[in-house]
Model the fold of this input.
Amino acid sequence: MPIHVNLDQLLKERHMKAKDLALAIDITEANLSILKSGKAKAIRFTTLEAICQALNCQPGDIIKYIP
Done:
């Protein structure tokens, strides 16, 4: 799939654990893991917005299109 999720990199840059992000954006660690692994088929804009707020980033920092 040409869509790549860079959440692991952003978490490392911000010295944050996935568990803390999941708690901050109110989703399960399992769902965050699916998103981080790139296996998610979709993401809600509300979830994307919450991630951007928690990590102080833009959607393009999280999701990249690489053909």
